[in-house]
Structures are given as structure tokens and as C-alpha cells.
Amino acid sequence: MAREDGVVDLELDRAHSARMYDYFLGGTTNFPADREAAARAMTVFPSILATARINRRFMHRSTRLLAGELGMAQFLDIGTGIPTSPNLHEVAQGLHPRARVVYTDNDPIVLTHARALLESHPAGRTAYVQADVTDPEALLASPALLDTIDLTRPVALSLNALLHFVPDDRGAHRIVDRLKDALAAGSTLTITHATPDFDPEGIRRLTSAYQAAGTPGQARGKDEITRFFDGWDLLHPGVTATHLWRPDPGDDATTVTSMEASCYAGVARKP
Description:
With 271 residues, this protein is an alpha/beta fold. Helix content is 38%, strand content 15%. The protein is built from twelve helices and eight strands.
């Protein structure tokens, strides 16, 4: 957060979900508070390293589909997290060099990585917006967003590993509905979301560990997650365990278990 003197407080004394996720992916942009919270999470839910990496592979697959097969040229990635290459814009612009990508996150340390986030293909463009998904109006009105993507044309909205940090009392479904309403016909919505459906006790312990570290959360069942896509057309195979969503040939879909994934994934298109 920015202080009155303009200096950004990186809040390194408290754990943050984005930096914990970076740790789970083997990154280096994490600090003692993050690592301590991550260690507690790993103790109560040992599959979390696999869960994070399965989720990351889904992001790569779904982005390739959107930029390649569907020809999506504009992307809005909310809850970006610490850049881990290949990031979304690298995947998208590798297939669609003119793609424009806007990243947003509420972790102030992500701002320090904006240079990596902004290394666009020369034919395309990327931008970064410091914003919180719980204030969608401010996010959608950001000059950096509006200068980069045209909301009157289709946009691929990504909410990967984000909504389980937005409990019902913060209006998760209302927020997603507002974001969907702002997008043109032909836009897409991509979601991954933690679920208790495959390991209820493990996810209960994991949610408690995050809450103890100061990060509220709410895992949701398949029906609740599917509701986020209401009114849009789900692409095959619908809402399914993350590793089972269009696995690549030779992928680990047959060796990974749904308990390890512990997330649902889906992609839908606005009619």
C-alpha cells in the first residue's frame, strides 16, 4: 500500500497469498512470513505443491486455447500474482503476437515486478493495474486498463486461483456478475477455484491455516463454482477437476488424483 509520503509499503511482515503461491511454485519472491504460513499450509495439506502446479499447467492450456483456437486478442488477468515464466502474456502472445494483456493484483510487491509483466511482444501490449477485485468499479475504470483493452470488443477474463479468497460476505458472485456485465459478447471467463469436494477435511484445515495467516477464504463445491458461469456457455468439458480440463497428450491426467488437484476449472463464453 502507498503511504502518505508516496513510499509503497510491501507489507513483508505479513503473509500474502500471492507470495505463498510463488513459494509453492518454487519461486523466490517470498519472505519469512510467507514461508512460515506456507509451511503451515503444507503441514495440514501436503498436496498443496501439486495443487499449485496443476493449476499453473491449466492456465497454460486454457490460454493456448483462447489465444490459438478461439483467437482471443484481449486478456484481463485479475489476481495475477508474482510473474512466473511463462506467464499468461508470454503464452498468449506466442500464439497471437498482437494480443493485449492487462494484469491486476492487490499485492503491492507485484508492482515491483511490473517490468517483467510489461515485457510484451513488440506487436502486442501489456499493462499492470494495482487493484482489488472486491472493487470492480475502480478496476474497470482504470486508465491503464482502458488504454490497453477495448471493453466493447471480446475480452478473455481470467480469475484463476482467486475467488476462493473472496468469501460470500464480500460478494463473490456479485463481483463476478459485475465483471461479466462489463464485457462484450464473445468474451470468455476462465476460473480455477479450490473445492472441498475431493478432500473435505484437508481443505478445511488448509482454509483454517490461511485464515490464521490473515487471509480469509472460502472453498466452494461444484454447484457454487458453476454458478459463476451463469448465463454464459461453458466450453467442453464444462466444470471439472483442474487436471482433467483438456489435458495435453502425455500430460499427467492419469497419474494425478482429483484429491491432489482439489480445484475445479472451467471456461465459458458470453453469447
